[in-house]
Design goal:
Low-confidence stretches of chain B: 1-7, 192-202, 358-364
Largest sheet of chain B: 8 strands, mixed
Order of helices and strands of chain B: HEHEHEEHHHHEHHHHHEHEHHEH
Distance between the termini of chain A: 8 Å
Number of strands of chain B: 8
Shape of chain A: elongated
Shape of chain B: globular
Oligomer: heterodimer
Order of helices and strands of chain A: EHEHEEHHHHEEEHHHEHEHHEH
Distance between the termini of chain B: 20 Å
Radius of gyration of chain A: 23 Å
Mean pLDDT of chain A: 88
Mean pLDDT of chain B: 78
Structural class of chain B: alpha/beta
Structural class of chain A: alpha/beta
Strand order of the largest sheet of chain B: 3-4-2-5-1-6-7-8
Largest sheet of chain A: 8 strands, mixed
């Protein structure tokens, strides 16, 4: 699963389970023995909630370790932390941070100066990708739980966003570097959707835009698919007049079971119809079943197994 | 799902709400992906069907919904939607919010053409009007206030932006104001107001070191762009702050009602709870909760049979498959039921309405409509 990627950027429409799928990917990779950093950028604390931890901050924390040596670490990247980090790394100026903070420049740059915010967030993820620990990478893979599809192209299009505002100087150089990492063949974008009209439409729109911008789509993950299908023969037999004879059980239950079967089959047929346009994307497509009403760590771990099998 | 109504609670009477002529604004709020747009559209359509003159401000309608509304023609100003069988007086207009267009119009209306062009061309303005977190929310509110003043309408129904959390919508005008009024921006623009030299002397060493650093990091052009933007924008901005306050007052007026949309999953419900708390503390008037996409529970005798038989060996493949589905659906329904019960316990006497899950979003529109008959 996505074995040659070092940065996986996960996006999707609100409500499709983007964060859970990002976590499932991280766990799946750790199960294969990889050291993974799972990063969120929207301060929703979804990772902390899922792993049953206190709020995550800018400090990377170990969330899970497998016997194989695989690990999942977590971080909640915030723009202010990333800015101070950046100043420190490139200028040795962590102390200047307090002055900037005092006059309100940190909150200005990191939150409201348009374009800069995104480059700080993506920049931190790229830094983690390229970070060395001795002779090896500090992390084998970074999984970025990115903003929803409605904002993803702008989020990743750092150079274009920054170029209008900052024409020269280190931030411009930083933008170029980030852009290079984001466009590398080790970076892949995964779009999460559900088998419904709106999320699928957004997925297709975002894929096309991202490809136009020369980003690489690693695949589409269809989440919450009704598990299990009827075989063709079963579906046809349910339509036949003698269908009731095909089912086993107390007579008074056969009729309601028939009605139930037809409704469920309709739902599955509708879902397949909805999914069809995704084929035009010509990318890897993975379906994940709907496991209950909401995803806890146990279910996400189950999804991780399905992703890697 | 009659069993879900076990806890005593009021049903959200949508029919009464849309017939109430003192209600002039309906705002649909909720976490991303819960069906706000569909709910807003179905409220608007239902209201037109009971004779209201409605304008729907939508953000990003789904295709089928768009077809119903004739979205191909939808622009940043209201256009008529031809609904069949409207009663006398009933009317529906719809528009799709254009964030940048609304912002540009605001600027053009606030200053002379020359100044407006300067602002519109400033790269900092371009970035602010297209990608500032909160601009879309602010512009939705701005549009709401404009349409509310339009005498053609007696009800405005607003859909809130998809990606934002429920609280973002309420906080965005304040955030934009804080941004434009922030100390840092004031520092940057002060030279233009009081004369550069005087200002430079007034700066303490730390601050001037800080702006020196920013010049190094961001490039001198950046601060110049910000400075010229803010100076130009000041006239517009003076109006902005007042506007934002007025709009918020409009939201606090009881003629504005908030409809909360949620699904029965933990995160949207957490957001819903935060939002309700905020509504109470800010004196905003709450209309009701629309609980969307509720999983229907299979008939109880089927569930019982499934639980019973699936424990043992089942010889019949098709029946076994179907009974597994029964069990899976029941488990989801059960989890949802518990979340709903908890929500109702925490929000006693809150009117709410459950909408069954439909495989296609737009079907909920018909469901909600049937509730109002």
């Amino acid at each position: 699963m996505f074995s040659h990627h070092r940065l996986l950027i996960v996006s999707g429409k609100g409500g499709v389970g983007k964060s859970s799928v990002a976590a499932a990917i991280a766990i799946g990779l750790a199960n294969q023995g990889k050291r993974v950093l799972l990063a969120e950028t929207e301060n929703r604390q979804a990772i902390a909630a899922l792993f049953g931890r206190g709020p995550l901050g800018y400090q990377e924390k170990l969330l899970l370790r497998r016997e194989s040596g695989g690990e999942v670490h977590g971080i909640a990247i915030d723009p202010a932390g990333a800015l101070l980090d950046y100043l420190d790394m490139f200028y040795g100026l962590r102390s200047a941070g307090s002055i900037l903070e005092r006059i309100g420049a940190v909150s200005f740059i990191s939150n409201v100066a348009p374009g800069l915010r995104d480059i700080l967030l993506t920049g931190k993820a790229c830094e983690a990708v390229r970070r060395k620990s001795g002779d090896t990478w500090a992390y084998d893979v970074v999984v970025l739980d990115a903003p929803p599809t409605g904002r993803i192209t702008r989020f990743l299009n750092v150079t274009a966003e920054v170029v209008g505002i900052v024409k020269v100087g280190p931030i411009k150089q930083q933008a170029n570097w980030v852009s290079e990492v984001l466009h590398s063949d080790q970076t892949g974008i995964l779009l999460v959707t559900t088998p419904e009209e709106m999320p699928i439409r957004e997925t297709i729109e975002a894929s096309n835009q991202l490809r136009e911008m020369k980003f690489r789509l690693a695949g589409v993950i269809v989440n919450m698919v009704a598990p299990d299908q009827l075989t063709k023969e079963e579906a046809i037999s349910l339509e036949s007049p003698s269908a009731v004879d095909l089912l086993e059980g107390p007579t008074e239950l056969v009729e309601p079971l028939m009605a139930f079967a037809k409704a469920e089959q309709l739902l599955r047929a509708t879902q397949s119809d909805q999914l069809r346009p995704l084929q035009t994307l010509d990318t890897e497509m993975i379906e994940l079943p709907k496991l209950g009403n909401s995803l806890d760590l146990l279910r996400v771990t189950d999804l991780a197994k399905r992703l890697t099998s | 799902m009659t069993s879900a109504l076990a806890t005593k609670s009021t049903t959200f009477d949508v029919g009464a709400l849309i017939r109430d002529e003192s209600v002039r604004i309906l705002i649909c709020c909720g976490s991303g992906g819960v069906g706000k747009t569909t709910t807003a559209a179905s409220l608007a359509i239902s209201a037109a069907r009971v004779g209201r003159k409605v304008c729907l401000i939508t953000i990003d309608p789904a295709k089928r919904l768009a077809q119903v509304l004739g979205v191909d023609q939808l622009t940043n100003s209201p256009s008529v939607v031809n609904l069949p069988d409207l009663p006398v007086g009933g009317q529906l207009h719809a528009m799709m919010l254009d964030m940048k267009g609304t912002f540009d119009d605001l600027v053009r209306n606030a200053v002379d053409a020359n100044r407006a062009n300067q602002i519109l061309a400033n790269p900092f303005y371009v970035a602010l009007s297209t990608s500032f977190a909160g601009t879309q929310e602010y512009m939705a509110m701005e549009k709401l206030a404009q349409v509310h003043r339009d005498e053609r309408f007696d009800l405005v129904v607003v859909d809130t932006p998809p990606a934002s959390s429920t609280l973002d919508f309420l906080d965005s005008p304040k955030r934009l104001g804080e941004f434009l009024n922030g100390r840092f921006i004031r520092l940057l623009t002060a030279p233009a107001r009081i004369g550069g030299k005087l200002f430079a002397r007034a700066l303490d060493a730390g601050t001037s070191a800080a702006s020196g650093l920013l010049d190094r990091v961001l490039g001198a052009d950046f601060l110049k762009d910000v400075s010229s933007f803010i100076t130009n924008f000041d006239e517009v901005f003076g109006g902005f702050q007042t506007r934002a306050e007025k709009t918020y007052a409009l939201l606090q007026n009881p003629m504005t009602r908030f409809v909360l949309v949620t699904t029965l999953t933990p995160e949207p419900m957490r957001e819903a709870q935060d939002f309700l708390r905020r509504l109470r503390s800010d004196g905003l008037t709450f209309a009701g909760v629309v609980v969307n996409r509720v999983q229907p529970d299979p008939a109880s005798n089927l569930v019982e049979y499934a639980n019973h038989t699936l424990n043992g060996q089942m010889g019949h493949a098709l029946t076994e498959k179907l009974l597994k589905w029964v069990k899976a659906d029941h488990e989801i329904a059960d989890e949802q039921h518990q979340l709903l019960e908890e929500f109702r316990r925490n929000n006693m006497s809150l009117p709410n309405l459950t909408i069954p899950f439909a495989s296609q979003d737009s079907l909920t529109y018909f469901d909600l409509e049937s509730q109002t008959k």
